[in-house]
Amino acid sequence: MNAQPPTPQTPPTPMTATISRRRVFAMVRRYWYLLRGSWPRIVELMYWPTIQMVMWGFITLHLRDNSTWVAEAAGVLLTGVLLWDILFRGQLGYTLAFLEEMYSRNLGQLFISPLRPIEMVLALMATSLLRTLIGILPAALLAIPLFAWNIFSIGLPLLSFFALLLVMGWAVGMFVTALLLRVGLGGESLAWFIAFLLIPVSAVYYPVDVLPGWLQVVAYALPPVYVFEGMRAVLFDGSFRWDYFLAATSLNILYLWLGAAAFLWSFHTARVRGLLLQGGE
To answer: I want to staple 230 with a disulfide (CB 3.0 to 4.6 A). Which of 202, 203, 244, 263 is the partner?
Structure first.
C-alpha cells in the first residue's frame, strides 16, 4: 500500500496555545529584577501618587470648612485621587514594561523564544499590579497621619474599586501597546496622556450629573464612572451599589476583550511585516 502523506496540522493560535506559567513567571521576574535594580524607578513610582495625595489633601482641608458637599463625606476628594491613580498606574505600569522592551529592541529576541503573546500580556498584567501597589500603598498610608483619613476604612468595597480600575487600566494599556506595535516609539507619548483623556468624563472629583446630557451618555459607557459614583454612594450613604458594580464589571470585560484583540491583531501584523525587529526605530 502507498503510504498516505501526513495531514498538515494547523499551528496553534496565540489564544488557543497552551499557556505556560513558567514563561509568564519568568517574564514577571525579569521585570521585577529591572525594577529592584533601579532605586530611581521605585522612587518615581511612589513620588507622583504621594505628591498628588498631599496636594489634594490640603485642598480638602481648605474645602472642608467652605464646602458643605466636601464636609458631608470626609475624604471624598482624597479617595477619588487615590482611586484614580490606580487606573493611571495600572495603565502606565503595563505600558512602561512593554516600552522597556522596545527601548532595548528586545521584542524580536523575546518572540524568537517559545514565549507567546498572551503569556506576555499576562506577565505585563502581573507587573502592572506590582508597580501599582508600590506606588499607591505609601500614599494611602501617608494620608492617615497627615490628613486623618484612612482609605482602608471603606472596607470590602475598596477591593472591588481597586480591581475594577486596575482592569480598566490594563485594557487601556493593551490599546496603547497595540498602537505602539504599529507606529513604534513615535507614539510613546500615548502612554503618558491617553488615560487623562478619561478624567473629564469619569466623574472622579464631581458627580456625573454635572456633565451636559450628551457627555453623560459617553460617561456611562466607561467603567470608571460607575466606580466613582459607587465610591460616593459608600462615603455619603454608606451603601454599596451592586448595580454600579455589575455595570462596571460588564464594561470591563468588554474593554478587556477588545484590548486583547487589538493587541493580538497588532502583534500578528507586526510579526508578518517584520516590525518586531524595528520597534526601536
So the answer is: 244
Does residue 171 lie within any of the structural domains? Answer: yes
> Which among 53, 73, 224, 248 has a CA at the least distance from the CA of 154?
73
Tell me the H-state helices in 104-189.
107-112, 117-147, 156-183
Parent domain of 216: 21-278
Looking at residue 14, the DSSP 8-state letter turns out to be: T
**Cα gap 202→219, rounded to integer Å:** 6
Question: Taking the CA atoms of the chain, what radius of gyration do you get in angstroms?
Answer: 21
List, for residues 208-247, the tens digit of each pLDDT value: 999 998 999 999 999 999 999 999 999 888 889 999 999 9
* Residue 244 belongs to a domain: yes
Judge whether 3 lies within some domain: no
Residue 227 lies in a domain: yes
Closest CA to 73 of 238, 257, 265: 238
- Total domain count, the chain: 1
Give tens-digit pLDDT for 153-204: 888 899 999 999 999 999 999 999 999 888 877 778 888 888 888 888 998 9
pTM: 0.87
240 CB burial (10 A radius; 0-12, 13-18, 19+) = middle
Tell me if 64 sits within 8 A of 71, measured CB to CB: yes
Given a contact cutoff of 8 angstroms between Cβ atoms, the answer to whether 191 and 96 are in contact is yes
Residue indicated by cell numbers 466636601: 70
Closest CA relative to residue 128, chosen from 159, 163, 102, 152 = 163
Cα separation, 51 vs 136, in Å, equals 11
